[in-house]
Amino acid sequence: MSLSHPRSYNTTRNFLALAAVTLLPLTIFLERASPARLNACYIRRELQSPPPPLIPLRDSVLHNYSVYIMWTAMFLLALLPHARPKALFSLTYASLWFHATYIYLAAFKAPLQDFNCAGRHKSYPNGISGHYCYFIFVAFTAARYARSRLKSNPNASPGIKAAAAALMSLFGVGGVATLYRTFFHGYHSARQISYGASLGIFAHCVLDYILFQEDSGFTTYLRLLFLLANSTTSLTLYFRLWPHEAAGPAISFGNLVFHASLWVILLVCTYYLRAAEENPAKEA
Q: Which residues cross the membrane (predicted)?
């Protein structure tokens, strides 16, 4: 039932954490050396049209397609028979973790006072790329989750493995295309992209240690407390820092309702996870 954490992935996580920490001062240094290039928008969206895309889908449709494909793959892996309560708990936990990360992202945008590439929304803070944060976080976390699920289910049918691999590949194509458009369609500057990528990598590394590393010392309840503290802090910063009157909400009421709903699902998953841990023979 263990989702063990091999030493090779510890090395990968440490490398990613180092990359995230290095990327921020490197971006600041490059901005001072060449501020025009790092802060420039590839096109002015409010004045120019982007070149015809290779994938004939609107930007928002491409993004949504990629998200739905990823969720289909993750649910398919979660429903594998062995360690299912643990898998559903982990999937919901990771979703809430990113929700908190995105709320931090919105809160941190405000003090940056960077309105570049915001299109017609001149008063909307745009200093961190949410697309880069999201897709980089999900790419690493989904791969980590898939690896754990297949390790816990070594006898999974080749058909399920092939379906999961195909869905993950489609997500990769959609994700890369979305990240390409994020810059070349003028949604974010290079600096904003760098900040978003750093936040996505850092959020994944912390989540990986808390959720997937069995010898981290985090029990189920300690993980819940850590997530609660993280969510509460992110919401507090968002409501204190975000310029609601000037820019409108960055986190909609529907997003907050969905966030609360995920907490309910997580608590239900916790109940079944604890029951499975107390009765391992029944889980087997």
A: 62-80, 87-108, 128-146, 158-180, 192-212, 224-241, 253-273
Residue 267 in tokens: 């608590």
For 119, the 3-state DSSP assignment is coil
Spatial distance between the Cα atoms of 219 and 221, rounded to a whole number of angstroms: 5
CB contact at 8 A, 91 and 70:
no
219-263 pLDDT, tens digit per residue, is 999 999 999 999 999 999 999 999 998 899 999 999 999 999 999
d(CA 257, CA 228): 16
Q: What are 281's two structure tokens?
A: 């023979």
124 by DSSP, 3-state: which?
coil
**What does the domain layout of the chain look like in residue ranges?**
7-283
State pTM to two decimals. Answer: 0.89
Q: 136 and 52 in contact (C-beta within 8 Å)?
A: no
Sign of CA dihedral 11, 90, 166, 153: positive
